[in-house]
Amino acid sequence: MLRIDVFTLVPHAFAWLTEQRPLAAVLGSALELRLFNYRDTTPLRAGQVDDEPYGGGAGMVLRVDVVAAALDAAYGGPPEQPVVALTPKGRSLTQAVVEELAAAPALTLLSSRFEGFDERVVEHLASDAVSIGPYVLSNGDLPAMVVLDAVARRLPGALAEGSGELESFSEELGGALEYPHYTRPAEFRGWTVPEVLLSGDHAKIEAWRREGVR
Length: 214
Ligand SMILES: C[S@@+](CC[C@H](N)C(=O)[O-])C[C@H]1O[C@@H](n2cnc3c(N)ncnc32)[C@H](O)[C@@H]1O
Fold this sequence. Notes:
By secondary structure, the protein is α/β, with parallel strands linked by helices. 29% of the residues lie in helices and 19% in strands.
């Protein structure tokens, strides 16, 4: 079983994700998900978690002592499992990174908001930093959900038998994109389905599909 711990300011935001596949299919069997709120363990008064940036400038910064307190409360010291800070400055999330994360026995995901983490979180408390793309979102919760969904798909029981192997970026397809799919009707507004798919000839269909992904 893979255990993923997410540290966030809005644990309730993850509810919808846990109610549907693939997470719903693997929760309690292949995946244990724990959600931690930085505010529950902050050493500061009145649930404070952020502060003004040294050197001035707009926005607030998630404090390093707040993140450290949350990790200490959960693990009683530095966690042994990978601790992944979600930040636009991290390494890009690719399918290879997803496979790597899904192979770990346990993972910690750190989400931030505001102007982001105090850099010492990324340097000293996290062991890895991941970006879901070259754009800036308002918080790390959507990136954490992207990682959760992508990782959960790789766990046993998440998908129907076989449907996870022949996907875009999979080893089976040599990292290429998957072939196109079609379903009924065979013709719509004059747009037809490739003849080969209606032929019933499985060898030809397989060859057409393999050709399409090159
Ligand atoms: C508004 S962003 C901070 C952006 C930061 N000031 C910058 O310019 O790089 C707030 C938080 O959202 C999350 N975030 C935003 N975009 C992200 C991305 N592309 N990948 C991963 N996390 C992201 C991170 O946790 C980040 O600390």
